[in-house]
Amino acid sequence: QPMAPVLYLQDKSSNFADGIEDDNWEEQAANRLTDAMQGLDERSQDIIRARWLDEDNKSTLQELADRYGVSAERVRQLEKNAMKKLRAAIEA
């Protein structure tokens, strides 16, 4: 018997429920990150976005140091503190 074309396209390795759960988890994680980011000051938000969230053009510590008129070491410290706050907020 001939099979419907849609059957050729189905992913046999996972089921529909798994896909829904994955999408739901990703959406929840994105929402937690957004909420956690709002708890940071504007400069820390910018540093996290520039270093971690901008896929196309990630900034270096030195580029951010030049932007904010501080040392690259200070940007690293700000980034570290912001990441610590984000982790705590997301895990809460």
From the 3D coordinates, which CATH architecture of the domain at 42-92 would you assign? Orthogonal Bundle
* CATH topology (fold) name of the domain at 42-92: Arc Repressor Mutant, subunit A
Determine the mean pLDDT. Answer: 83
String of helices and strands: HHHHH
Helix percentage range: over 70%
Over the alpha carbons, how many angstroms does the gyration radius reach? Answer: 20 Å
Proportion of strand residues: under 5%
Number of strand elements? 0
Task: Enumerate how many helices there are, as a single number.
Answer: 5
N→C terminal distance: 55 Å
Structural class: mainly alpha
Largest sheet: none
The name of the CATH superfamily of the domain at 42-92 reads Winged helix-like DNA-binding domain superfamily/Winged helix DNA-binding domain
Which regions are unreliable across 5 or more consecutive residues at pLDDT < 50? none
What is the CATH top level name of the domain at 42-92? Mainly Alpha
Rough outline: elongated
Oligomer: single chain
GO molecular function, one term: DNA-binding transcription factor activity
GO biological process, one term: DNA-templated transcription initiation
InterPro entries: RNA_pol_sigma-70_dom (IPR014284), RNA_pol_sigma70 (IPR000943), RNA_pol_sigma70_r4 (IPR007630), RNA_pol_sigma_r3/r4-like (IPR013324), Sigma-70_Factor (IPR050813), WH-like_DNA-bd_sf (IPR036388)
Protein name: Sigma-70 family RNA polymerase sigma factor
